[in-house]
């Protein structure tokens, strides 16, 4: 604590009363303004603001009634953002969802809804399968450069895809497909 009664991060003074329900709702709505949030993230944010547990629960229940807090919708949004901006394998997406406090049940539902081998995405520009996601990640990584012939370079690309959460079989398949496409391109 500093001499002014605040912690290093500028927290509340010890004598400040906890926020009322209206203030808790305002804090939560402001936090939701940047992007969708999970119930767990909002609980943590309101807890840091010193909101009492009963007010936190009531606030989150009300936000859920209004449709602002929905972990299943968050999981769909998160996966779509990954597909659109930085393709990841389902293993990585699931890990990221767990880090945001998404429950195992919601992750299982997300997996069954989105991890099918030939899932048709709502947006045609997004990849529909794990193999398409992997190829998209590889294409973005190469940025128009040709697929390398050097085995060490291919190994590094494979490790890149593994770090992105793709399973080994998908990575091997993607590398084989990219290598054969490159050979076909040279013959043409």
Distance between the termini: 70 Å
Give the amount of beta strand, in percent: under 5%
Helix and strand content put the structural class at mainly alpha
Helix content: 55-70%
Helix count from the secondary structure assignment: 9
Q: What is the succession of H and E elements? A: HHHHHHHHH
Query: The biggest beta sheet, please?
Result: none
- CATH architectural group of the largest domain: Orthogonal Bundle
Nearest-integer average pLDDT: 86
Poorly predicted parts:
1-6
Shape: elongated
Number of domains: 3
Radius of gyration: 22 Å
- Which CATH top level class of the largest domain fits? Mainly Alpha
CATH topology of the largest domain: Arc Repressor Mutant, subunit A
How many individual β-strands? 0
């Amino acid at each position: 604590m500093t001499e002014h009664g605040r912690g290093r991060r500028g927290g509340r003074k010890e004598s400040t009363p906890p926020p009322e329900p209206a203030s808790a709702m305002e804090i939560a709505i402001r936090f939701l303004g940047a992007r969708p949030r999970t119930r767990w993230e909002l609980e943590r944010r309101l807890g840091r603001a010193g909101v009492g547990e009963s007010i936190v629960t009531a606030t989150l229940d009300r936000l859920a009634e209004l449709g602002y807090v929905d972990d299943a919708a968050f999981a769909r949004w998160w996966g779509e953002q990954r597909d659109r901006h930085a393709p990841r394998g389902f293993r990585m997406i699931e890990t990221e969802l767990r880090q945001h406090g998404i429950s195992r049940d919601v992750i299982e539902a997300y997996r069954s809804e989105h991890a099918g081998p030939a899932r048709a995405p709502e947006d045609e520009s997004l990849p529909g399968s794990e193999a398409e996601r992997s190829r998209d990640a590889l294409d973005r990584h190469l940025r128009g450069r040709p697929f390398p012939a050097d085995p060490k370079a291919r190994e590094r690309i494979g490790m890149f895809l593994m770090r992105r959460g793709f399973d080994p079989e998908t990575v091997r398949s993607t590398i084989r497909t990219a290598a054969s496409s490159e050979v076909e391109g040279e013959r043409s």
